[in-house]
What does this fold into?
Amino acid sequence: MNILLDDSISPAALGALREIVRRLQRNEITPAQATVQAESITPKAGKLFDVADWSDGAKATLYASIIGAIALVAAAKMSSSGGGDQPPIVIENIIETRTNSLRDSTSLPYIPIPTPRPK
It folds into this structure.
């Protein structure tokens, strides 16, 4: 997310990164090729595709998340650079580490599901 939020990356560069991710989704390029292409846009962007040890499902989730994040960041950048009366949109980094479990972040108590006993 920090890579996409970098002020030095223009909306056009974000669009180019989105196209790289779409080509990955269609299996037109490999993650290694995507890394090279992304680094030609900005050196930091190659890190987005460092997924060699990831499962196919995890890769698919990452790629969909990148496309969604690019759309939001590009819209915010275009909106905030338009001038006018509107204050700039500030996007904060809200991704946290995996150490926080879902149970810790909700107000519902943990209730175990009963399992039937064998007969």
Notes: The two ends are 52 Å apart (CA to CA). Helices lie at 2-5, 11-25, 31-41, 56-80. The chain has a mean pLDDT of 76. Residues 56-80 form the longest helix (25 residues).
